[in-house]
Write a structure and sequence with these properties.
With about 400 residues, the chain is an alpha/beta fold. The chain folds into two domains: about 170 residues, 3-Layer(aba) Sandwich (Rossmann fold); about 200 residues, Rossmann fold (3-Layer(aba) Sandwich), CATH 3.40.50.10300. It contains 13 helices and 21 strands. The strands form six sheets. It has an eight-stranded mixed β-sheet with strand order 12-11-8-13-16-17-19-20, sandwiched between helices. Helix 3 packs across helix 5 and helix 4 packs across helix 7. It is elongated and about 80 Å long. It binds cytidine-5'-triphosphate. Cytidine-5'-triphosphate binds next to helix 11 and strand 16.
Length: about 400
């Protein structure tokens, strides 16, 4: 909930993609941010202020000379009180004006008068984007600390194919979170594992579990947002691959182990959220097992405990976080895993969190300091776990 209670000026300029600012507004409001929409005159040609203000739950400001009255906010207040300014979509014109220090309308004035971070999401024709002046303006702004997200390559509204599409709204939202996050894990190399593993019975069947991968993916996203370099080793999952990380897809426990062994030595922090199979079929049939017999027994053998291996190899500066999935004696069993696997933190949870958007976890450290968290969304839990890790670093 990085965006909760944050005051965000959302600048909308005149591009076809302006309609996507409506969806961005909806998502920002859903995250409990306060959105102050500011439209340029040409943005009003593409979407109506009424749509934007309805979704933002705040009046749209456009006029530099309007006085503070009723629900309207002065440009100085917009500039001084905002935590973040996002311009989505941003035209070449807006980028050029900001890069040249021109403030001839409300949006450019707010940008120039504010000390808040400015995130720009460009959208334009690909030839315009490639224009050397536009590129120089972008480079200049980046050098000055302005943040950018996109543009992306694809089909453009003008009929061209190329780079110039507004970034996906979900990526803009993530870039907003990024801009507002303290980089307390900068310099850290974080290895996260996520999802289930699959152990083959025959070419069409496997043994697995209900893990969705959500907890591990949330941890990977949060660690990256907090400035870490992240490797995410993931078992089969339907979740979209988080951006800005090294993604290593695996299927079996053995592949999970191989990937972890490869990335473990250079990792400074490891969070093992994967639900790795403890047993696998002793043999996997080369062809589909037919239903000839009345019963079928599958002999299983133990897989390697990856976290146990890591605990044994752990170097002093490495922080090792494990999960403990328990159905009984939760704290007691989790503490046992903390000791046996030489962990720094253990996150105890129950099957209620499997394949769910929320979970209820208890975090325990080596000093037996027990933190019982309430039921929370997995993004929030990821940040709470990483808060503990960051505190340990201090
Ligand atoms: N783990 C692992 N390798 C395995 C099994 C589990 O590295 N083969 C890791 C998990 O990623 C998790 C921790 O060990 O971080 C605990 O997993 P859990 O399933 O709770 O317990 P197990 O150690 O497998 O023990 P048990 O199933 O007996 O409770």
């Amino acid at each position: 909930m990085v965006l909760k209670d944050k005051k965000i000026v959302l600048g909308v300029t005149g591009a076809i993609a302006a309609y996507k600012a409506l969806e961005l507004t909806r998502l920002l409001v859903k995250e409990e941010a306060t959105v102050w929409p500011v439209m340029t005159a040409s943005a009003r040609e593409f979407i109506t202020p009424l749509s934007l203000s309805t979704l933002a739950r705040n009046a749209v400001s456009s006029d530099l000379f309007e006085l503070t009255e009723g629900s309207k906010i002065s440009h100085i207040e917009l500039a001084q009180s905002s935590d973040l300014i996002v311009v989505a979509p941003a035209t070449a014109n807006l980028i050029g004006k900001v890069a040249s220090g021109i403030s001839d309308d409300l949006l450019t004035t707010v940008i120039s008068a504010s000390g808040a971070p400015v995130l720009i999401a460009p959208a334009m024709n690909c030839k315009m984007w490639e224009n050397r002046i536009v590129q120089e303006n972008v480079a200049r702004l980046k050098k000055l600390g302005y943040l950018f997200v996109g543009p992306e390559t694809g089909e453009l509204a003008c009929g061209y194919e190329g780079r110039g599409r507004l970034a996906e709204v979900s990526d803009i939202l993530e870039a907003c979170e990024d801009a507002l996050t303290i980089k307390d894990l900068k310099g850290e190399k974080v290895l996260v594992t996520a999802g289930p593993t699959r152990e083959a019975i025959d070419p069409v069947r496997f043994v697995s579990n209900a893990s969705s991968g959500r907890m591990g993916y949330a941890l990977a996203r949060a660690a990256r947002r907090r400035g870490a370099e992240v490797v995410l080793v993931s078992g089969p999952s339907y979740l979209p691959k988080p951006s800005g990380i090294t993604f290593v897809p695996v299927t079996t426990a053995e592949e999970m182990r191989d990937a972890c062994v490869r990335y473990y030595p250079q990792s400074t922090i490891v969070v093992m959220a994967a639900a790795i199979a403890d047993y696998r079929p002793t043999k996997s049939y080369p062809t589909k097992v037919k239903k000839d017999a009345k019963t079928l027994s599958i002999e299983m053998e133990r897989t390697v405990d990856v976290l146990h291996y890591m605990g044994k190899k752990k170097k002093e500066a490495q922080i090792l976080v494990g999960f403990a999935l328990e159905t009984e004696n939760i704290e007691e069993n989790a503490k046992k895993k903390l000791g046996e696997k030489n962990l720094d933190l253990v996150v105890a949870n129950t099957p209620a969190g499997l394949d769910s958007l929320t979970n209820q976890v208890t975090i325990i450290n080596r000093d037996n300091d027990i933190e019982v968290l309430p039921p929370l969304g997995k993004d929030e839990i990821a940040d709470r776990i990483l808060d503990r890790v960051a505190r340990m670093r201090e």
